[in-house]
Structures are given as structure tokens and as C-alpha cells.
Amino acid sequence: MRALYTAATGMMAQELNVETISNNIANMRTTAYKRQRVGFQDMLYQINRRAGTATSETGTIVPAGVEIGSGVRTVATPRIFTQGNVTPTEKEYDLAIRGDGFFRIQMPDGTTSYTRDGSFELDAEGQIVTVDGYIVDPGIVVPEDASGISINAEGTVEVKLPGQAEPQELGQLQMARFINRSGLESIGDNLYRETGASGPEIAGVAGQEGFGTLLQGHLEEANVNAVTEISDLISAQRAYEMNARVVSAADQMLEATSNLR
User: Fold this and answer.
1) What value, to the nearest 5°, has the Cα angle with vertex 228 and ends 224 and 229?
2) Both ends of the chain: CA-CA distance in Å?
3) Rounded-to-5 percentages of helix, strand, coil across the chain
4) pLDDT (tens digit per residue) in 4-35
5) What CA–CA distance (Å, rounded) separates 143 from 163?
């Protein structure tokens, strides 16, 4: 019975929907996390009577056909890159991006990854790195005797050095943005990787046209809304239950048919 398999596709789709929602909820406190949503499509149809075909020699046309669907499938889990709340941390190396853009991260294998998580630290050599020790492009080194580090809205890093009245500029943090941010590949650790779907990176610095600005001593929160996620979870659960009831009903109909034989 076709209804049995159709309902099964609905159950599998809603199971993945619940898994996506659970991941969003689990990352409510993850810095700069971007929530995902699930996209669905209906599957192929069996056409028993095609709309628009002639039913007589006089040209009478069928106004509506008979199409029997075969279920639903999941086609995408795109990320929603809306701005998360910006909260103060009072840490001088913490940076929040207000607007579009990603920090460029130099990976150990020589490739470049991207992140909006600006919770940076200094490594043993004085370089600005991520919490996992990956170098933040362009690899700015803070002198050991430096004090009063300042990072302005454009990403320019300045420090005060002993014996100098004016702050010394150490460099400027590099940023990137993409035409299709949803096409980026998530690789964990709050990092993304460029793909053919995202398009090539558009390099620049904070404050330029199309790029957001930076705020020192702040971090961007996840853009997960607890109320929305719980509402979506309830809807997914109800949809799963309805599909399960269809499976049960189809089973009862098959049982009745079997008993007739």
C-alpha cells in the first residue's frame, strides 16, 4: 500500500527536522552560532489522469488531473545568518562583528577557514589566535612588553609600548564575505569552509562597503530564539505523530484485506 511508504518518508523527514532543532537548542550558548532550518520538497507523482488532455472528439479538456504523490524529502538545512545579540565581556581580545563578514583563520594545513566567533587569545609567541590556537589573519604579533591594546571598528590593532608617547599600529585584521553565505560548509569548532555554492571569498576589512564593523570587548551570541525552536519542535512532533497514525491506519487496512482472503 502506497500510503505506508508515503507516511514513512514523512516520519523520516520530521525525524531529521527534530534533529536539526535539537542542534539549534544545544548551541543556544555557542558564540556566534547561526541557526539552521530544514527545507522540504514533495517527491515524484504518479499521474493516473493528466490535466489538459482531451476527453472527446469535440475538444473537451480535463480541467484537473489525478496525481498521487509519493511523499516528502529533505533538500537542505541552510543557516540563517541574522545578527545575534552583542554582549560585553570586558576581554580586550574579544571581538564582535556587527554586520556582514567573517574573520579569516589560517589553518595548520595552509588552507583558510572563516568564523564569526571573535573570542581570541594570544599564543606563546604573542600572535592573535582562536581558542584552538589557529592564527587570525594576517598573523599580528603583540610585543611582550606591550600594554593597552586597542582594536578599533575597522580592525586596526594598536598597542602602547614603553618609552613611546603615541600608540604603535601593529596591523589590521582581515575579513571576508560571500555572495551566498548559506553555501558555506560547516566544519565544526565555529568554523566554515568555502565551497562552490558559496562563491569565492570577497576579501576586505571591517567598515568597508558591504562589511560590518568590529566591537572590542564584546562577543556575538547565537541567533537561536528559544520560543521559536520550541514551537517548531512541537510542530515537528505533531507532524511525526500524524504520519505514524497513517502508518498504523495503513497497517490496519492491510490486515483487514488479509482477513478477507
Assistant:
1) 70
2) 16
3) 25, 30, 45
4) 888 899 999 999 999 999 999 999 999 999 99
5) 14
